[in-house]
């Protein structure tokens, strides 16, 4: 889990982690099939797999969003998804309403998320089979606690020893990277998972050593003993105590306000909700508090390490509680949430599709900041937008399930149940609070750890059953109150239900393994796409005029796109084919036989921004007001070979159109429609593409300036006025730039920038 998110959340890390986890699950299932009659095996009730069932329902709901449905059904289930395909993309590309549509407005992104979720479902199911054993449960909690310690230690090491660059992924920047995570909020959630595990271990071992423990464990029959005689000699307990101290220091040093807030709320809630717990930890808590505070003071004063903790670590926390501070009130995520709720209502009840939030909210912006919000910074709001009614119901069912399970564990007399109950209580509150201000739970490492921990909570709770009545359990000298008992842990394979239960487990495991295989194949293709995209970004600028390299890379990319037409890959293919078309056009012009100065001028005239202007200048109807930022443009008609269906320019247009159909609210394929106007020869399409792009990013001044320039170059001054006036309204510093650009066009109506009351962009 630690390695799966090492240095970033990338397709290749998800792919390799999925392969490793699936292989590990297969080994565990084979071992499980050979474990009949082994000591410690217990009969697992169907309720033990309740969490897996919820995840399967989530998986099914998300998959349904990517299945093509009739346009009428999509319009009823998700009106905004229908609008994205018909009213937005449909104004640029022809849409046949008799064809099927998907609820998801980004189906390839949704299928990628579904593939990752499929692995989590498999892990959840196998975790129930593996970690119901007492010893393996202890090892799971210990492993997660130690993993969180490694994140905390690496993060603190990067802060205290900045000259050590092994884990320095980038120096500073937004998110203040911490540990193996590029964002401190994600790291804080991972550390909180370690705190939950450490608390569970402390309560488990402390309860076992302080009170009459489980009758099946001879080490726990000693009853009450002093702290010094037993607690300091218990390896698991010492590991948990050290882990708790390290993770608490790491969480403070991390500086995540959401992480600290969730820790404080979860700690308080856990103490209040489990105040009747039988283990006395007042002394332990006091000792841990003293150790943690001492270490923090030493780190702050520079006693440990070559440098002190950076000022921003404490300023980030102090600004939240300092009187007169306005950091929270001006937090961009708070101003964005109203748009998120508006988006959820527009997509209700079917949602917009898993992992599509970054596109879904764009048409409904009113209060969002300038930035492109790929996530809502609120996982519950994001689920509401992407899954709609299904997201609300599944969240409510998960909450009810965890409350019921934690109540059972709280009432159990087994020390292990008490420890798991404490861990589960802390974990659930941490998730509820932290994910209101973040989305770190969707990260594979955090998701897998949470899935395993909660699977253990549910499975363990399913083994605790209430007695039928108080009278049956009343014995002389007792109050007659109903007690709890655990399911028998003897030779359960002799039960008549053995075959039924084993067949159920094998069938479910086989089905989940098949799903995991398909998921791995999807992640493999996504990994290849990401590799191609990154290769193009890194090498394209060095091979712009290398015709053999461009042809070879285009052929390889087109082959991959034929197998897996991912929008990102199609966007790269559009760019590569456009460049191939430029070189072909220069060849047809015999550019190699003219002076080098003229060659450079021709090469510049065929650029993405200017080629369409030369085509417009050559058209008698469209040539009016055509300039390049006020500079006259020479006519450049398009020769017939460049318009043939198999020409590079035509192939680039096909890729751009396919990308727009896959992501009807994306900006790159829209701008490609503008650049390729000389191929599709539809000025109305160009006008719609520019206006829609401006409407989708209405709060980004730089983009408004750019869109206005695109429109002004071909004389669409109405669109340019609206975009530039919007840019000046958003940012006062844009006013000189807007006026400077507008004055480059001799006939531009500059006065309308001031007098026009309209600042919105129609789409």
TrEMBL record:
Ranges annotated as spanning the membrane: 15-36, 48-67, 113-131, 138-157, 187-204, 230-252, 258-274, 281-299, 387-406, 418-437, 443-468, 503-520
Keywords: Ligase, Membrane, TPR repeat, Transmembrane, Transmembrane helix
Pfam families: Wzy_C
Localization per Swiss-Prot or TrEMBL: Membrane
First and last residues of every TPR repeat: 701-734
GO molecular function, one term: ligase activity
Domain O-antigen ligase-related residue range list: 245-395
Record's bilayer topology term: Multi-pass membrane protein
Keyword Transmembrane helix: yes
Main location group: membrane
Family matches, as InterPro entries: O-antigen_ligase-rel_domated, TPR_rpt, WaaL-like
Protein name, per record: O-Antigen ligase
Annotated source species: Stieleria magnilauensis
């Amino acid at each position: 889990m630690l390695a799966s998110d090492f240095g970033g959340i990338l397709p290749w890390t998800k792919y390799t982690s999925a392969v490793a986890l699936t292989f590990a699950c297969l080994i565990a299932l084979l071992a499980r099939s050979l474990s009949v009659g082994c000591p410690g095996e217990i009969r697992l009730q169907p309720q033990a797999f309740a969490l897996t069932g919820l995840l399967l329902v989530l998986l099914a709901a998300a998959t349904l969003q990517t299945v093509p449905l009739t346009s009428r059904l999509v319009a009823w289930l998700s009106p905004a998804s229908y609008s994205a395909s018909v009213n937005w993309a449909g104004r640029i590309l022809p849409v046949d309403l008799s064809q099927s549509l998907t609820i998801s407005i980004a189906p390839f992104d949704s299928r990628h998320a579904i593939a990752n979720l499929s692995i989590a479902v498999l892990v959840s199911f196998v975790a129930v089979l593996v970690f119901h054993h007492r010893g393996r449960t202890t090892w799971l909690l210990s492993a997660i606690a130690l993993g969180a310690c490694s994140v905390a230690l690496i993060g603190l090491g990067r802060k205290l020893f900045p000259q050590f660059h092994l884990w320095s992924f980038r120096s500073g920047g937004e998110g203040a990277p911490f540990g193996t995570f590029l964002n401190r909020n994600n790291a804080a959630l991972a550390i909180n998972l370690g705190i939950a595990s450490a608390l569970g271990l402390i309560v488990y071992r402390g309860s076992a050593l302080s009170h009459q423990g489980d009758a099946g464990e001879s080490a726990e029959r000693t009853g009450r003993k002093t702290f010094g005689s037993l607690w300091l000699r218990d390896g698991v307990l010492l590991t948990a105590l050290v882990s708790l101290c390290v993770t608490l220091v790491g969480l403070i040093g991390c500086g995540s306000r959401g992480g600290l807030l969730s820790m404080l709320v979860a700690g308080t809630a856990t103490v209040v909700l489990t105040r009747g717990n039988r283990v006395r930890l007042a002394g332990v808590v006091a000792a841990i508090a003293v150790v943690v505070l001492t270490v923090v003071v030493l780190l702050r004063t520079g006693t440990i390490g070559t440098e002190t903790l950076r000022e921003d670590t404490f300023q980030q926390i102090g600004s939240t509680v300092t009187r007169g501070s306005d950091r929270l009130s001006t937090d961009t995520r708070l101003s964005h949430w109203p748009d998120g709720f508006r988006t959820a209502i527009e997509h209700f009840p079917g949602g917009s599709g898993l992992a599509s939030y970054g596109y879904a909210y764009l048409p409904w912006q009113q209060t969002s900041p300038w930035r492109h919000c790929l996530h809502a910074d609120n996982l519950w709001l994001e689920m509401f937008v992407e899954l709609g009614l299904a997201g609300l119901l599944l969240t409510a069912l998960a909450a009810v399930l965890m409350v019921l399970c934690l109540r059972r564990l709280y009432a159990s007399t087994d020390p292990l149940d008490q420890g798991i109950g404490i861990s589960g209580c802390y974990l659930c509150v941490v998730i509820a609070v932290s994910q209101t201000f973040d989305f770190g739970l969707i990260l594979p490492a955090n998701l897998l750890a949470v899935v395993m921990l909660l699977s253990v909570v549910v499975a363990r709770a399913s083994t605790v059953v209430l007695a039928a009545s108080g009278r049956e359990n009343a014995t002389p000298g007792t109050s007659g109150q109903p007690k709890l008992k655990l399911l028998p842990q003897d030779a359960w394979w002799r039960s008549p239900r053995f075959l039924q239960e084993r067949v159920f487990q094998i069938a479910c495991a086989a089905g989940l393994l098949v799903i995991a295989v398909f998921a791995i194949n999807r992640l493999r293709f996504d990994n290849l796409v990401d590799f191609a995209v990154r290769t193009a970004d890194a090498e394209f600028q060095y091979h712009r005029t290398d015709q053999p390299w461009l042809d070879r890379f285009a052929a390889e990319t087109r082959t991959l796109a034929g197998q897996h037409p991912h929008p990102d890959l199609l966007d790269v293919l559009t760019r590569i084919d456009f460049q191939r078309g430029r070189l072909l056009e220069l060849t047809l012009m015999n550019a190699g036989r003219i002076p080098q100065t003229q060659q450079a001028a021709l090469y510049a005239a065929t650029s993405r921004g200017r080629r369409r202007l030369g085509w417009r200048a050559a058209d008698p109807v469209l040539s009016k007001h055509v300039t390049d930022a006020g500079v006259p443009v020479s006519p450049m008609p398009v020769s017939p070979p460049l318009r043939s269906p198999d020409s590079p320019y035509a192939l680039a247009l096909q890729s751009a159109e396919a990308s727009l159909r896959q992501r009807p609210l994306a900006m790159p394929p829209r701008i490609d429609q503008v650049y390729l106007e000389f191929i599709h020869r539809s000025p109305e399409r160009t006008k719609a593409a520019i206006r829609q792009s401006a409407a989708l990013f209405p709060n980004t001044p730089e983009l408004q300036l750019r869109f206005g320039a695109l429109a002004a170059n071909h004389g669409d001054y109405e669109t340019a006025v609206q975009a530039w006036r919007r840019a000046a309204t958003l940012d006062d510093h844009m006013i000189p730039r807007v006026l400077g650009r507008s004055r480059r066009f001799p006939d531009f109506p500059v006065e309308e920038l001031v007098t026009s009351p309209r600042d919105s962009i129609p789409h």
